[in-house]
Amino acid sequence: MIKKASLRLLQRPAMEETVLPGEIYRRTSLNDDLAEAGNPAVELNGPLLMNIMVKFFHAYVYPGSHEQVLELNDISLLFDRFVHRRLGSDVLENCLDLRKRLLSYGFALCMLADLPKSVHIFKAIAEAKTQLDGEPYTGLDIGSGTGVLMLAMDVQAKRNGFESSSLVGIERNQIVAERTNEVLGNMGLGNVLVADAKKKDSYGFLEGRKLHYICNETLPGAGRSLWKEDFIFISKTLFDGLEEHTSDAGCFPEAVLVGRSPEEMLTVLDSSTGFQLKDEKYPLRLMKPYGISLSGEMTGLEDVGQAYESFIPSSWKAVLTRRW
Ligand SMILES: C[S@@+](CC[C@H](N)C(=O)[O-])C[C@H]1O[C@@H](n2cnc3c(N)ncnc32)[C@H](O)[C@@H]1O
Question: Per the domain annotation, does 239 fall within a domain?
């Protein structure tokens, strides 16, 4: 009895504010917002992109909700349940099944829930100009997680005037890949394969097609050595072994600033060298990433998303998860 009462005292109360300010919330479905974003005459501003992010978060947990006009309170309740999924929380009482689901693909949702960074990256991809013509637009998302960058590629295809797009994601985590495949399949936005993107034979599905765009968000966080994640190894596979597919593709990230330290041997890697060093005087795998180029601007990893922080109410800034 006493134990139960003290556990109740440790329970987090429900969040008081909504996850986005009411003034920027649009009473439109995710499908409507994506269609609007695909119109090249529409500016991809913070409010529109924030709406896409939170509604896609909801659709990831409740497939099918992309067609509905949701209440901001319901989206906020889901975010509240997500950020407290490991803790006692009033909003998770009697939600055992949901808590299990949020735990099983939670690491992918953590990246999406870093709303300012997700919005910044989405905008850079969605506004990129393609160099290659020819239908359908073909996009590859490596380390697709929730697949939010596949939504961004679909918007890019529409803004560049393509009639159709063929999008494939590669994700090594089976639970996440299967979930994302189901969610994106439901939205008609492509497929996700469970595979290791370092291996050349994971790309058999390309069958001679040229890629218009490649997303590869498998970089380690700032200050961690490049060998800790697969970015440079995957890039080698893509640009060394598969150049007939990748040679004209646009890339996210467009370029990566790496160095031995923030002051030593700073070098920009991009697709012209397959994201490898021209002259390997020091092993690339021991270098660390410090910035990525977004919309043509080299941006410190810690500064990605900064311009969109003001859309997040302060009580939520403290609890929302971080991308890297
Ligand atoms: C930083 S997250 C990217 C998240 C995703 N782009 C998004 O926007 O939510 C990196 C993802 O890459 C996946 N990954 C890392 N190395 C991989 C590999 N060699 N092959 C396939 N997936 C990989 C991880 O499982 C993780 O889901």
Answer: no
